[in-house]
Amino acid sequence: MQVWIDGTATTVTHVAELDAILGDEPPGEVTLASDAAWRTLHISFWRDRAGLYWESETDILLAWGPVPPGAPGNQVVGDAEYAYDDPRFALPDGIEPFEVTHAEARQAAHEFLRTDGRPTNVQWVVKP
Which top-level group of life is the source organism from (predicted)? Predict the structure, then answer.
């Protein structure tokens, strides 16, 4: 997998290598690109929150938020209007849509590195 930061790519094969690149204070924008297929996970880090954007051969998606307790992972809805009305997409108090914690963003990056697939720890909304 290639990790792109400020136009520079670094090859990573293990979570420890990825964590070393992200560091304690992650860079603002990071793109993880699959070596095996056309799939990318873009992460925007800011203060204590992050945003995730997924691209693949068939999907362009935004992370809505973390998977609520009891909901199945890796769900996708057609747009944000449906997500607001779907109880499976409920957000914890104080969480804004399209935001996750840094820890959840790292978890998504780790899963993508391990599986080469779309992370399942967040809910996804089709990008308008």
Answer: Bacteria
pLDDT of residue 74: 72
Residue at token pair 């944000």: 80
List, for the chain, all residue ranges whose pLDDT scores fall below the cut of 70: 94
Local structure of 25: helix, strand or coil: coil
Buried residues in 107-125 as b, exposed as e (16+ CB within 10 A): bbbebbbeeeebbbbbbbb
Residue reference for tokens 């599986």: 115
Separation of alpha carbons 79 and 59, rounded Å: 13
The secondary structure of 73-112 as a DSSP string is: SS-EESSHHHHHH-GGG---TTPPTT-EEHHHHHHHHHHH
CB 75 within 8 A of CB 89: yes
pLDDT of residue 17: 96
Q: Could you report the per-residue pLDDT of 32-51, keeping only the tens digit for each?
A: 999 888 999 999 999 889 99
pTM recorded for the entire structure: 0.88
- Our CA dihedral for 45, 122, 98, 109, rounded to 10 degrees, sits at 20
